[in-house]
């Protein structure tokens, strides 16, 4: 297969001209930078929208050709390169489908960017709670039954927003039927598929939501494909949503100074998917199996496999995931995330020609576990599964919430109060408390469990002082 990377090739041709910069960026091809040399070398390609390099917001040359190849590969109406991450794709797809005051049905364990979009657009969220997945000990997918009930209760909802797969690699057996149900009622389905950009590479991976008929799908190419951080894809394949409207909001929301390094890496990532062969997949799975067998020989380690074979969950006896992460980091092994039960590993999407030091990794993991055995385990015995209604709404809408004063109170006295700030364990970036929600015993119990295990939080909080932000009484 002849490799086509129009944007990469355009950058290479531009670099060969030994161009003199009298334009932004101010580092002048890295000349003025004091960063380490390898980073300075890459800055020679950190250019702007010059003649021959196309215009990101009105592409007609290399960027257009690269996005056309992406559109063809994923078989969509239109696909876009995103340089501001999947976050910006989530914002754009909600702006393009909903107006202020309208209702939108949204999966409760969505990423915080979905909830930011809901707040910015001013729509009323109808939350649908996901099923509990005992295998991964996480909230997973929304069932068809719950979605049917939600649409029956809120028939005027303008869109359904789902997350697929979840952060831990758990897919949904009901997604195709949910999309079919929504489309029968002319409701578009928007999918945050941040962790599924690689699904296109082989049929043994879970199917992309695009193949099930989703209207808009946003993928983080940087999570599992060889793209730079913030590089994502947005795909449109819909009779219900106009791609021009999505493009309008992308132009409004994304930077007017796009990174050509990110753009080139997206062109390269698309090519990587296109060239990924059945032999590459077989070799990856063979090496993965050997790695799993090697991990299985380490005392106390439990390996949990999920739907996506690039995701592995490791548990070590009764030690919390936070203890395991800390022990691993002492051996310079850095995992994607830790939670009270486990750590999450994202394996590389290797091709035949790639080397990966699985034997050395196994050795370091064994050393980490051996050291961990000298500590007292602080894992929890009972699952803290949030007890949520299958279908719920905010206790106080965003408009009214914005008019209310807030106050900081000890979180132990917050039961029954309305939250004014968002609290997000990060990663995975799924809000535990949303502004406008009533704080319940189960929410507070989960917060205390996360705090007890040393989790990190984003959002509006002062948890180091044991305070949270609520609506003033």
* Helix/strand class: alpha+beta
What's the CATH topology name of the largest domain?
A: Aspartate Aminotransferase, domain 2
**Biggest sheet features:** 8 strands, mixed
Strand order of the largest sheet: 1-9-8-7-6-2-3-14
CATH superfamily descriptor of the largest domain: Type I PLP-dependent aspartate aminotransferase-like (Major domain)
Number of domains: 3
**What would you report as the Rg, rounded to the nearest angstrom?**
23 Å
Looking at the overall shape, the CATH architecture of the largest domain is 3-Layer(aba) Sandwich
Distance between the termini: 66 Å
Helix count, per DSSP? 15
Stretches where pLDDT is under 50 for at least 5 consecutive residues are none
Count of extended strands = 19
What best-fitting shape do the alpha-carbon axes yield? Answer: globular
The overall average pLDDT, rounded, is 95
Q: Approximately what portion of the residues adopt beta-strand conformation?
A: 15-25%
Helix percent reads 25-40%
CATH class descriptor name of the largest domain: Alpha Beta
Keywords:
473 residues; alpha+beta; Aspartate Aminotransferase, domain 2; Aspartate Aminotransferase, domain 1; Molybdopterin biosynthesis moea protein, domain 2; 3 domains; eight-stranded mixed sheet; 15 helices; 16% strand
């Amino acid at each position: 297969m002849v490799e086509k990377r129009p944007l990469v090739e355009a950058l290479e041709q531009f670099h060969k001209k030994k161009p003199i910069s009298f334009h932004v960026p101010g580092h002048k091809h890295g000349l003025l930078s004091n960063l380490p040399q390898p980073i300075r070398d890459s800055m020679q390609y950190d250019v702007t929208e010059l003649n021959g390099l196309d215009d990101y917001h009105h592409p007609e040359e290399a960027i257009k050709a690269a996005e056309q190849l992406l559109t063809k590969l994923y078989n969509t109406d239109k696909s876009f390169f995103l340089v501001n991450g999947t976050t910006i794709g989530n914002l754009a797809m909600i702006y393009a489908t909903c107006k202020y005051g309208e209702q939108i049905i949204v999966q409760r364990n969505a990423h915080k960017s979905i909830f930011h979009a809901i707040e910015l657009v001013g729509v009323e969220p109808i939350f649908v709670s996901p099923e509990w997945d005992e295998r991964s000990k996480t909230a997973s997918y929304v069932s068809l039954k719950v979605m049917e009930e939600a649409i029956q209760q809120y028939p005027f909802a303008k869109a359904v927003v789902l997350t697929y797969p979840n952060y831990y690699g758990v897919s949904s057996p009901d997604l195709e039927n949910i999309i079919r149900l929504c489309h029968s009622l002319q409701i578009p389905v928007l999918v945050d598929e941040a962790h599924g950009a690689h699904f296109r590479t082989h049929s043994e991976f879970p199917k992309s939501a695009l193949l099930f008929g989703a209207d808009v799908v946003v993928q983080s190419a940087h999570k599992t494909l060889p793209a730079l951080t913030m590089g994502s894809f947005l795909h449109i394949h819909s009779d219900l949503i106009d791609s021009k409207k999505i493009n309008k909001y992308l132009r409004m929301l994304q930077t007017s100074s796009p990174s050509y390094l990110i753009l080139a890496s997206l062109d390269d990532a698309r090519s990587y998917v296109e060239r990924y062969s059945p032999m590459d997949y077989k070799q990856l799975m063979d090496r993965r199996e050997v790695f799993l067998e090697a991990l299985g020989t380490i005392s106390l380690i439990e390996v949990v496999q999920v739907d996506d074979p690039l995701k592995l969950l490791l548990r070590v006896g009764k030690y919390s995931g936070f203890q395991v992460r800390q022990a691993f980091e002492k051996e310079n092994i850095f995992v994607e995330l830790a939670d009270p039960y486990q750590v999450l590993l994202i394996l590389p999407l290797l091709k035949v020609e790639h080397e990966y030091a699985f034997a050395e990794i196994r050795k370091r993991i064994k050393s980490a576990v051996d050291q961990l055995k000298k500590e007292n385990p602080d894992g929890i015995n009972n699952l803290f599964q949030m007890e949520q209604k299958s279908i719920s709404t905010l206790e106080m809408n965003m408009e009214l919430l914005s008019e209310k004063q807030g106050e900081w109170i000890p979180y132990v006295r917050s039961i029954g109060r309305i939250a004014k700030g968002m609290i997000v364990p990060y990663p995975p970036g799924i809000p535990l408390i949303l502004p406008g929600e009533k704080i319940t015993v189960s929410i507070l119990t989960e917060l205390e469990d996360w705090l007890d295990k040393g989790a990190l939080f984003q959002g509006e909080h002062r948890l180091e002082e044991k305070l949270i932000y609520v609506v003033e009484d």
